Amino acid sequence: MATRSYSELVKRVEELVSIEHYVSLGVLKGGLLLAAAFREGALNLYALDPSTGSMKRLNRDPVTLTARHEYGSDRVVFARDVARGAEMHALYSVSLDSPGEEERLAPSMKPARVLGIVYSGGEVLFTASTREENGLYAVEGDSARLVARFKGVPLLTSYGRGLAAGVTMKPEWGGRFGLFVADAGSGEVKEHLPEGGSACCPVVAGDGTVIYAFIGPRRAELRRLDPSGMKDEKLRLEGRDLDSFEPTDITFIDVAPDGSIIVIARKAGRSRLFIDGRLVRAPEGSLYYAQLRGGRIYVTHSSLRKPPRILEIGGDGGVRVVAEGRLPGWLGEALREVSFVEVESFDGSRVPTYVLKSGEAGEPGPTVVLVHGGPFAEYGDDWNLLAASLASAGFHVVMPNYRGSVGYGEEWKLKIIGDPCGGELEDIVASARWARSSGLASRVYIAGYSYGGYMTMCALTRKPREFEGGVAGASVVDWVEMYELSDAAFKQFIEFLFGGKRDAELWRERSPISHVDSLEKPLCIVHPQNDSRTPLKPVLRFMEKALERGKAFEAHIAPDMGHVVNTVEDAMKIVVPAVVFLARLEKRVGGSAQSD
Ligand code: 4NP
């Protein structure tokens, strides 16, 4: 394949990052959809009329995080980073009647890391983390009242009948996620760690019970919890399709105003939608959120080949696109083929792995093992900017859901607890070996962001012969120093990941900065300057050590941004250096007309 010029390569990335995304988050007053759209260069909120497609922008300046809204809301509530990416958030609201006129909520409260917001019954509740503590707050007048303090990281998902519900992770829970139900008046908090598994997506139903997903070792199911006695039972639905699907994960639950229970469940990296347990047919890929409105369903869909878009599903099952971005003409061929394989790892485990074949690479061709963050996340059949960018630049992309990933049951997730840069790294190496042995890959590189950046650093320092080079974005290099620099939420998160153990020796051993000597292959570091989750400072020390030892590396500090990529400009700062570095290693970029 011919090399491209730098400007061609960059232009492709720019076209990709500029594709508009649309997500429907709720139904507002008058039946308008609350759409969060990556549009006008950033994340913005719109009132979208699904029958005409007309859209009215609600916020003035770009948004970082949107509240969950009850049906029929006449205001929208959201948070915005006010610290140039360092994730110190302030809260705002806008009335549907006066778009653009933002009102700052609780202005006397200092900005904090907001973890979850709900706007319901005219009240705004949120969970947030400061350096010292994690808490649940209620907006009252000019200030935010601390309802309850939490040990663990509380993610608020629902509020109703005076009860706030969410998911929380405590270091002593051995890697499992529990539920909390808090009385917003008295501040009493009850926690529930379901026997043998984790909890997800709790919603306070109209009768004051909490509907949630139980994520078991290999299966997920719906349960109902009675907050008075904290007893739970399996929730029986009219339709049997959800049970017979045997999901390994449930990612979304809501109760519509008519009492219907809306569920999005997953298996093998793809989603299905159920209303009262009955399957609703939707295109293959991933689904997020879903609303019922006037006998129709609104849901967001994406896949590895399609960016997020809003679909309407009619009573007759017909699917209509309500809002979607325009795709560059070359995209379909660049993202030629998606497949799912199970790669055998060192201990016989099978690693669920997505593969995106580039139409611009031969077979075998240059391949990137792209590692997701989290680690409690997954790369399924969802839109993924990095995967699309790499495939567009002529790389096949292999995305292993290493142990620790979610989506495949608790048994697989829990295998990472206490063992970062251990078994999961072996799974990633197994996927690289598979890429070569299956005939897909000529040379194999590694890339990832956040926990994926950590895995890249681990791979290049602990397994230096398995990859030809790598890109570590927003990576973790030193658990000890990072812990000291973290706020309450991320301190708890690190302890959670290590299974509650604060073992400085283990933390040092699992830190790439302890193994700089072993680096052999070219490394590209990309790091946001104001990142408060994976701070830059330890990475600067890593670079100093690499420099002293004469290692081949390059570094791109992305100015004026933090961990979260929320604008076209920020996406360019991260993706362009990554793609150019890899293309250069493959001699796929440059001024001369080389070919391979
Ligand atoms: P993520 O970022 O991969 O984007 O979720 C992370 C941030 C912090 C930690 C891990 C991942 N940590 O362990 O502190």
Q: Write the CATH fold name of the domain at 331-595.
A: Rossmann fold
- Which ligands are bound? 4-nitrophenyl phosphate
Question: Strands across the major sheet, in which order?
Answer: 30-31-33-32-34-35-36-37
Which stretches are poorly predicted, pLDDT < 50 over at least 5 residues? Answer: 592-596
CATH 2nd-level architecture of the domain at 331-595: 3-Layer(aba) Sandwich
N→C terminal distance: 6 Å
What is the CATH H-level superfamily of the domain at 331-595? Alpha/Beta hydrolase fold, catalytic domain
Approximate helicity band: 10-25%
Number of helices: 12
Q: What is the mean predicted local confidence, pLDDT?
A: 96
Over the alpha carbons, how many angstroms does the gyration radius reach? 23 Å
Instruction: Let me know the largest β-sheet.
Output: 8 strands, mixed
Overall outline? globular
Query: Which band does the percent of strand residues land in?
Result: 35-45%
CATH class of the domain at 331-595: Alpha Beta
Number of strands: 37
| Assembly state | single chain
What structural class do the secondary elements suggest?
alpha+beta
